[in-house]
Each structure stands twice: as structure tokens, then as C-alpha cells.
Amino acid sequence: MTDSPAAAACTEADIQLIKRIIPHRYPFLLIDKVRDIVPHKGCVGIKNVTVNEPHFQGHFPEVPIMPGVTIIEAMAQTAAILVGISLDVVGRDLMVYFMSIDACKFRRKVVPGDVLELHMTVMRGGGKVWKFHGAAKVEGQLACEADVTAMLEIRD
Q1: Which of 40, 59, 119, 133 does the annotation list as catalytic?
Q2: Is 119 a catalytic residue?
Q3: Whole-prediction pTM value?
Q4: 47 pairs with which residues across the strands?
Q5: How far apart are CA 38 and CA 112, in angstroms?
Q6: If exposure means fewest CB atoms within 10 Å of the residue's CB, which of 9, 78, 92, 135 is most exposed?
Q7: Architecture field, domain 5-154
Q8: What element of type H or E holds 131?
Q9: pLDDT digits (tens, 9 = 90+) for 85-115
């Protein structure tokens, strides 16, 4: 799990690369791409919010709003891509588990048609436990922020 030149050169992850790093799939794969990847530092995940997502059937049918827990999960998935690139574990069986969610605040509704940008910054990382600060934004406006801590497990 050392840094490789390939990992250092990877600055963007499309959906195919995302699927090679994390095990999430529809309906729980909550990011479409990750850009501005700087290994061990930070990145920006992109989530295109559409009315066709299953959670909008019940949250809420007449006034669809993306649930806060799915915003936090999208942050975590973005962070997992950063970890996968940073540790050069693409194609391996990487699992990332929440340990804590701290200082979480919701500032704006996220609705269908929004493009959610998930700005994730490493606060502590490199070993099995990583901590990130996340800021979810829509058109530059802060929608949610939280500090998330996760534990890594490579199962192969």
C-alpha cells in the first residue's frame, strides 16, 4: 500500500474507476465522478441529483428533498475514492467503515436538478483510520458539512 506514480498521476475518477475502488452499486452508489484528486490531501466528488432516485418516492413525494444521511454517505464514498487512489488499491477489495460523524450541520436543501459537489479534505490519514472534513455545496452554497472518521479494511 505505497504510493505509486500511477496513483499520484490520477486526478479524476469516472464511474468505471469508482466501481473498481468501492463496492457500492445502484441504488446506493451515490457519486457520479470524483475530480481534483490530490492523494493524501483532498478531492471533489460530484453527485447529479435526479428525481428518479428511489429515496424521493418517500422523502418527500410532493416536495422531493435529498435525505441528509445520503448526503453524508455521498461524502464518505467520495472520501473512499480518495483513499483508494492515495493507497493505490484500485481493483482490490477495499471496505471503508464509518467510525464517527462529528460537527454535522445542514444548511440548505438538496433537490432534484442540483449538482452536489462534495469537497473532502484529509484531516488525518495514511494508516487504517482516516479523518476527513467534508463540505457539500450546490452552486457554491454550503448545503452540509461534517467531519467523518472511517476505518479501512482491504479484504484480499
Answers
A1: 59
A2: no
A3: 0.94
A4: 116
A5: 29
A6: 9
A7: Roll (3.10)
A8: strand 129-138
A9: 999 999 999 999 999 999 999 999 999 999 9
